[in-house]
Task: inverse folding
């Protein structure tokens, strides 16, 4: 085959069997790969009503057809399963080189089933695939696990693993690959931990063939030229990383502050990409085939928070920063390093800490609950300590380790959780940016920005500008971004490639690689198909339009200060229009006609 | 007293310029490499944001203007220019009028996610 390797590994952890299966070519054509194809297989194979942490859940590690090719920015893979955090479908996407290495070993996807009787890891060296004892690795953090596995297998092995958080079944645990890259969201690390699967180590020495070398090379060259020529993809992200957004969002009054009590943080500049570049950046870092290099290799010398590692991204800097009322960048970076080491999602970890601080300042939780730890907003030392406690489920950290909704609900106040479908929202206030709120509410994996990044248009003006405060045109914008991203994720491409290229270029790359003529319309339709399939699975899992909501705070409590003062989210004006444009009924259920059109009937 | 330079109208390093009303201009990302300050005040008349940007491009030269202008000499549509937090692309663009008490934020084309 071309682009796809044509082989899937199916690993039954209960009985230790490993099978190689042929890829379903028809399904691959319709759902592309990675997120889309794994969602299709989850849909076909997993009962939506199972317990996410039971052996009946399945865990997919899936690369896309472009993953591992020499096209620019196509080094990604997805981890797909039922989420313990949301109860919805989880698909967490990560970069680095793990996905390409899996393709070079000869596999499009690994499916883990059942539960190992004792801790194991999977070692893949091309055709040789075996489960090995991981008892000695259990309990170890991500860097040590990675180093030990490289020593035990191959110094060039690409390692994806969980840390203590995943082992302890934290609902906000991530899967980490190559130490600093995260499939972070929706608790996929807990599902891995529930299966007693500590890690995957892979070495591949093959390649990825393409169907039409000339057409693919031309499409790759065109895409690379457009990304490099774009001011954002070509230079901006490399110089400042994604954290440059701190000052932009703050300047438009939409930087959520102190658990979304406000949308403006007066000292945000101390935590932005400019400060990071000036004080902590060692060098930019890119993933496989990346020509953007938004990753940050960073160092903190302040003895209180000393360390060296990767990050923070914008979301992490915001979460541990403004959302916790903290402007100490050293502490923020340290918290990010700890999340990487322990295997925690930075967005959910930070936002859960912000929620705890809010509950504490409201008097809902007290020193008696926290074990004597004062949880005031702005306390950087406590924030860093809480990350450690959450990752290890120690003390009050145990109550926080399943995310903000479970924490707030345990004290009778779930409204303090700034989450959608129980997953914490990221760093854009829906009161100040209307379209992103509609996306948060309708995202198939709950509070999330990367499935429909309307910020590009509503704030950045890229490729066009729409007023962030208006609702007009936003449902259509959200749908376009959701469909495009579903298709893009499924190819193995990075979302940041879209700061330079779009559906036309991605369809050309996919056509050249696979030999299947994808038009731009075919590509976008595949995205819509994937979105609707994920929706149908979620509905079968018991979710409904009642879950397409935002926290009450965002609908009824206006932003207090800054340029967006007085604004609230107008979600309820936009949602019916969104359903209608999607071809869904008033309850958010896709119509039979639309499913027929998408080949999902 | 007025601490601004009377010939240029600029007063630097974020210090307010005495009794005379002055716009606050905030710079971000690459622009700070040229302005060598994150914020300053400007007290000379500038009827529109377009007028002010012209002054700034003249004052700071190519190291500044390359991020704000298009190769054709217009203002870049992907630079982010805010007046009191409102994006000029949502309003009258370079013709947006200025008042002495305005706060202007200028970002080169940058993004994240």
Result:
């Amino acid at each position: 085959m071309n682009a796809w390797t044509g082989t899937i590994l199916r690993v039954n952890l209960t009985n230790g069997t490993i099978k190689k299966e042929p890829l379903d070519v028809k399904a691959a054509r319709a759902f592309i790969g990675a997120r889309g194809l794994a969602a299709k297989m989850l849909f076909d194979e997993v009962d939506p009503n199972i317990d996410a942490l039971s052996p009946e859940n399945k865990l997919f590690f899936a690369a896309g057809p472009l993953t591992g090719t020499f096209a620019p920015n196509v080094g990604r893979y997805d981890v797909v399963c039922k989420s313990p955090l949301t109860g919805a479908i989880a698909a967490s996407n990560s970069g680095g080189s793990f996905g390409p290495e899996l393709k070079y070993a000869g596999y499009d996807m690994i499916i883990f089933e059942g539960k190992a009787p004792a801790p194991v890891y999977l070692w893949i060296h091309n055709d040789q695939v075996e489960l090995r004892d991981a008892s000695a690795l259990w309990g170890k953090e991500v860097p040590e696990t990675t180093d030990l596995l490289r020593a035990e297998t191959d110094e060039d092995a690409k390692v994806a693993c969980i840390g203590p958080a995943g082992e302890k079944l934290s609902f906000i645990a991530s899967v980490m690959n190559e130490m600093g890259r995260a499939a972070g969201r929706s608790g996929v690390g807990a599902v891995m931990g529930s299966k007693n699967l500590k890690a995957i180590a892979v070495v591949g020495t093959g390649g990825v063939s393409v169907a039409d070398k000339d057409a693919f090379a031309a499409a790759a060259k065109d895409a690379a030229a457009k990304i490099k020529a774009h001011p954002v993809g070509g230079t901006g992200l490399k110089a400042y990383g994604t954290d440059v957004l701190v000052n932009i969002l703050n300047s438009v009054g939409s930087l959520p502050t102190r658990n979304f009590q406000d949308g403006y943080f007066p000292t945000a500049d101390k935590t932005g990409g400019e400060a990071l570049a000036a004080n902590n950046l060692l060098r930019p870092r890119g993933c496989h085939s990346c020509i953007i290099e938004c990753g940050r290799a960073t160092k903190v010398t302040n003895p209180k928070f000393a360390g060296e590692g990767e990050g923070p991204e914008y979301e992490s800097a915001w979460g541990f920063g403004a959302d916790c009322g903290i402007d100490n960048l050293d502490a923020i970076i340290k918290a990010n390093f700890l999340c990487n080491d322990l295997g925690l999602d930075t967005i959910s970890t930070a936002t859960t800490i912000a929620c705890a601080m809010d509950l504490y300042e409201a008097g809902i939780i007290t020193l008696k609950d926290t074990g004597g730890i004062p949880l005031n907003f702005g306390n950087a030392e406590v924030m860093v300590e809480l990350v450690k406690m959450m990752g290890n489920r120690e003390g009050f950290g145990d109550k926080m380790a399943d995310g903000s909704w479970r924490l707030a609900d345990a004290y009778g106040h779930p409204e303090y959780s700034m989450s959608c479908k129980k997953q914490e929202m990221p760093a854009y206030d829906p009161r100040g940016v209307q379209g992103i709120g509609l996306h948060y509410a309708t995202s198939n994996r709950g509070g999330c920005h990367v499935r429909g990044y309307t910020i590009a248009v509503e704030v950045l003006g890229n490729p066009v500008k729409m007023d962030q405060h208006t609702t007009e045109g936003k449902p259509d914008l959200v749908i376009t971004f959701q469909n495009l991203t579903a298709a893009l994720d499924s190819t193995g491409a990075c979302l940041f490639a879209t700061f330079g290229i779009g559906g036309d270029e991605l369809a050309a790359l996919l056509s050249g690689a696979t030999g299947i003529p994808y038009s731009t319309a075919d590509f976008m339709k595949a995205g819509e198909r994937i979105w609707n399939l994920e929706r149908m699975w979620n509905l079968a899992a018991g979710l409904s339009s009642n879950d397409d909501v935002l926290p009450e705070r965002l609908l009824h409590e206006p932003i207090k200060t800054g340029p967006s003062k007085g604004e609230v989210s107008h979600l309820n004006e936009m949602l019916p229009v969104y359903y209608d444009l999607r071809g869904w009924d008033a309850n958010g259920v896709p119509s039979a006609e639309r499913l027929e059109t998408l080949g999902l009937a | 007293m007025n601490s601004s330079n009377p010939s240029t109208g600029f007063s630097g390093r974020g210090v307010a310029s005495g009794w005379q009303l002055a716009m606050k201009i905030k710079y971000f990302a690459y622009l700070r490499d040229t302005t060598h300050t994150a914020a300053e005040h400007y007290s000379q008349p500038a009827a529109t944001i377009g007028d002010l940007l012209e002054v700034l491009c003249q004052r700071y030269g190519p190291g500044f203007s390359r991020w704000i202008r298009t190769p054709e000499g217009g203002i870049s549509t992907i630079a982010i220019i805010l007046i009191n937090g409102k994006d000029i692309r949502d309003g009258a663009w370079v013709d947006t009028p200025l008042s002495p008490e305005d706060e202007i934020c200028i970002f080169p084309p940058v993004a994240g996610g």
Summary: The interface with chain B takes residues 231-232, 236-237, 239-245, 247-248, 251-253, 269, 272-274, 294, 313-314, 449-450, 453, 455-456, 459-462, 465, 467-468, 495-496, 499, 562-564 of chain A (CB under 8 Å). The longest strand of chain A covers residues 197-203. Chain A has 25 helices and 17 strands.
